Amino acid sequence: MFRPTILVIVLANLAGNALGDLMPLPLDGRIVGGSPAVIGSYPWQVSLQRSGSHYCSGSLISSSLVVTAAHCLISTAGVTIANLRVRAGSSYKYSGGILSTVKDFRVHEAYNKSDKMFDVAVIRLKTPLKLSPSLNVIPLAEVTPKHNADATCTGWGATSYQGSSSWQLFYINTRIVGRTECSGSSYGYGSKIRATMICAAFPQRDACQGDSGGPLVSDGKLVGIVSWGNKCAEPNYPGVYANVAELRDWIDRAVITI
């Protein structure tokens, strides 16, 4: 889904899924134009694993709660409570840290795979995690960051469009693109950008397949959830994320009832 350089956080490992233009990221992926990261710098980052394979990412918002993308947990993703695991506290998607089972998860009731609105979900772990410097939480944004604000995205996705994924966590530094700007004539999305979305772009850096559900962070808060885009690091197509500030009320309600 993402665009500019090769800051690549590659989320998934499902080579058979191709990413269509302007479609939600398949359950595989990468970060393009990125650099290797250590989990201690991004201790909220987690890997979602379906039947033993990494396919999406998420962000730890409490010792037992993870925020991710709705499209990572809808029925067509083939995910169940029984086959879903969450690895936290490791820079590597298949080793280290803690691999947790899941008690339950909830997908936003209004998520629509056609227009990609409301692309958010919450997972509750069966057993709360013990927090540490390499395994910690991130606060949710209360306001949408301003256009051109600095941001960071992380993941285990592919390092190029339809490329191979990374075993080690990667990060990219990027910039927020305001909704007005992202839907304007400078980019190719137009009216596809809605209020529940936020964009980010930087030349040759982007999130990509397999990074779905992962964090976009600005000013120390979770501002976005990797959602969709036109291929990865395409010059006229920023990465598109679920806007946490716009979806905060739903998240707050979901964590109480899940």
TrEMBL record:
Domain of life: Eukaryota
Molecular functions per Gene Ontology: serine-type endopeptidase activity
Catalytic activity: Preferential cleavage: Arg-|-Xaa, Lys-|-Xaa
Main location: secreted
Signal sequence coordinates: 1-20
Assigned protein family: Belongs to the peptidase S1 family.
UniProt-recorded name of the protein: trypsin
Organism: Drosophila grimshawi (Hawaiian fruit fly)
Gene this protein is translated from: Dgri\GH22680
